């Protein structure tokens, strides 16, 4: 596609000549403007790839002032095209960071060289800017990580140290039940640290672009039962308020198969986070409904709890890293879980939706499109 050029020139005859030369060189002249106001309007309307700017213009503002105005609001590389080449003018031109300077009279190939150099330089700058922005984002992420994770590590580590200290110093006086409760406390804290490390690792893997979607046939029903068994075991070990996960599996009547192509690792991240949130944010226990439905085109997972719910103003930010709702601050967490869920759902080309009523409960629904693997279909 040919580059779109805006010509800012107050001499109509020269402007038309430049337009003719540019067209012959294969560029598209989107507009000719002879003053600052028209130049700004043209930039807003046509978003040119480059502006060729005369220094002397009609009206109060010259080309250098016009370039400065354009730079304030738009990213357009500007090449000056002028008969003025004295030191004072050059000094003023430099202040608006031009991408080139052509002195009249000029040859057609001078025009082309200056435009191509300017366009290339601008493209290179865009790449550098994008790399810098990414670098900045990563740096922010790193410092957020260090702040949150070190804060979140401190509490469970202190709990472990305190429990071990008590066991070491007072073991002869402690009852069996008391010793068990201290060990239990240390275990819960160690689990919390393990969970944190896993989250940090998964986030880092995703950030490095190494979290990938590699679907393979899995038995959805067996997978979900296994998941619930893991949670049950966790419960029994932790002796936390009893929450029951009730699994319901349905499929389209003509769908005989429970083997479907999904990425087991991503699905594990998605469902463990949703189920653990449902349990964690239901401080008085109760039932968590875990519904799985699959058709030929999609697998739908729904996790519904009767917990604390999510305030409406937090809903739009739920999948942002480190965001925690205002009513959840007393319950430990980093705010990384749902960001990981969202990344895994995206990698699978799916969608996630949340419905919540404060104090009543929350329902997360994940829909993942599936392509049926012929190998998975049972032989007739
Ligand atoms: P962790 O990183 O350990 O999972 P977290 O649970 O705080 O910490 P997310 O899982 O990302 O982080 O959840 C973000 C926030 O969304 C939570 O802090 C909580 O405020 C809210 N939230 C998520 N799921 C639920 C739920 N089922 N019920 C109520 N609030 C929830
Ligand atoms: Mg969570």
Report on the architecture of this protein.
There is one protein chain. Strand 3, helix 3 (63-73) and strand 4 form a beta-alpha-beta unit. The chain has helices at 12-24, 36-46, 63-73, 87-94, 108-170, 176-207, 220-238, 264-280, 337-347; strands at residues 4-8, 28-33, 50-53, 78-82, 100-103, 216-219, 243-251, 259-262, 286-294, 298-305, 351-357, 361-369. It is built from nine helices and twelve strands. Mean pLDDT is 90; it is low at 376-380. It has 380 residues and is α/β, with parallel strands linked by helices. It is elongated. It folds into three domains: 4-106, Response regulator (Rossmann fold), CATH 3.40.50.2300; 142-207, Orthogonal Bundle (Helix Hairpins), CATH 1.10.287; 216-369, Heat Shock Protein 90 (2-Layer Sandwich), CATH 3.30.565.10. The protein binds adenosine-5'-triphosphate (ATP) and magnesium ion (MG). Residues 199, 273, 277-278, 281, 305, 307-310, 318, 324-325, 328, 333-339, 362 line the site of adenosine-5'-triphosphate.
């Amino acid at each position: 596609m040919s580059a779109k050029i805006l010509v800012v020139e107050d001499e109509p005859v020269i402007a038309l000549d430049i337009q003719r030369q540019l067209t012959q060189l294969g560029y598209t002249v989107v507009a000719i403007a002879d003053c600052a106001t028209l130049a700004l309007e043209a930039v807003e309307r046509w978003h040119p790839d480059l502006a060729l700017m005369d220094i002397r213009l009609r009206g109060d503002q010259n080309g250098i002032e016009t370039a400065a105005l354009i730079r304030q609001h738009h990213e357009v590389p500007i090449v000056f095209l002028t008969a003025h080449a004295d030191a004072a003018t050059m000094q003023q031109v430099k202040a608006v960071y031009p991408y080139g300077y052509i002195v009249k009279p000029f040859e057609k190939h001078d025009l082309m060289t200056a435009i191509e150099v300017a366009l290339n330089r601008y493209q290179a700058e865009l790449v550098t800017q994008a790399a810098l922005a990414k670098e900045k984002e990563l740096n922010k992420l790193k410092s957020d990580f260090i702040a949150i994770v070190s804060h979140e590590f401190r509490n469970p580590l202190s709990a472990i140290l305190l429990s071990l200290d008590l066991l070491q110093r007072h073991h002869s006086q402690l009852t069996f039940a008391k010793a068990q409760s201290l060990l239990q406390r240390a275990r819960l804290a160690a689990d919390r640290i393990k969970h944190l490390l896993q989250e940090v690792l998964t986030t880092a893997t995703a950030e490095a672009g190494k979290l990938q979607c590699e679907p393979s046939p899995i038995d959805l029903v067996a997978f979900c039962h296994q998941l619930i068994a893991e949670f049950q075991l966790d419960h029994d070990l932790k002796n936390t308020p009893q929450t029951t996960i009730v699994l319901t599996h349905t499929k389209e009547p003509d769908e005989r198969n429970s083997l479907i192509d999904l990425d087991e690792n991503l699905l594990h991240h998605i469902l463990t986070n949703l189920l653990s949130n449902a349990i964690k944010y239901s401080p008085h226990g109760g039932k968590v409904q875990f519904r799985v439905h699959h058709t030929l085109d999609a697998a739908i997972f729904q996790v519904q709890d009767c917990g604390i719910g999510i305030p409406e103003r937090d809903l739009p930010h739920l999948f942002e890293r480190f965001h925690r709702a205002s009513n959840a601050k007393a319950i430990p967490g980093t705010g990384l879980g749902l960001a990981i869920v969202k990344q895994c759902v995206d990698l699978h080309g799916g969608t996630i939706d949340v419905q919540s009523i404060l104090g009543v409960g929350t329902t997360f629904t994940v829909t993942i499109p599936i392509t049926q693997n012929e190998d998975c279909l049972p032989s007739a």
